[in-house]
Amino acid sequence: MAPRKKTGMKEFYGQKKKTNTEKTKKSQVRTPGTKRQVDTIPTTYNEARASSGTLGSSAVQPTTLVAYGRKDCTGDTEEVEEVLRQFDMNMTYGPCLGVPRLERWERANKLGLNPPKQVKDLMENAHATPDCLWEGRV
């Protein structure tokens, strides 16, 4: 039978070898191929925004949010949508998810919560979207 090896604390936890500092320094030096391209990262927010404009334009244009195939409100419908947005965000008239705006207004009216008449008029007369602000986003 072979002699038994010593299995003590020192043998189990081997001592760490000293590494050659020159080797580690050489391995830490990065070549241009492995370096991160820091030059292409914009230094400020304004530089990043300025580069996102159209060719030859100095003005920065905001991106268009498209939800359910329709763009954000623009022009004359902006005031109408703002009033309807305020109605959607007001939780005193009950929850609005899964319920069209007009149906929510009628439910709030039946419960005696006194929703604004202007909202009902805007929904019936204007070409407002029947869905609430949070529809499709939550």
UniProtKB/TrEMBL annotation:
Transmembrane segments: none
One biological process term in Gene Ontology: DNA synthesis involved in DNA repair
Listed GO CC annotations: delta DNA polymerase complex
One function term, GO molecular function aspect: DNA-directed DNA polymerase activity
Highest taxon in the source lineage: Eukaryota
InterPro entries membership: DNA_pol_delta_4
Residues covered by region (Disordered): 1-40
Coiled coil ranges: none
Protein name: DNA polymerase delta subunit 4
Source organism: Araucaria cunninghamii (Hoop pine)
Lineage, broadest ranks: Eukaryota, Viridiplantae, Streptophyta, Embryophyta, Tracheophyta
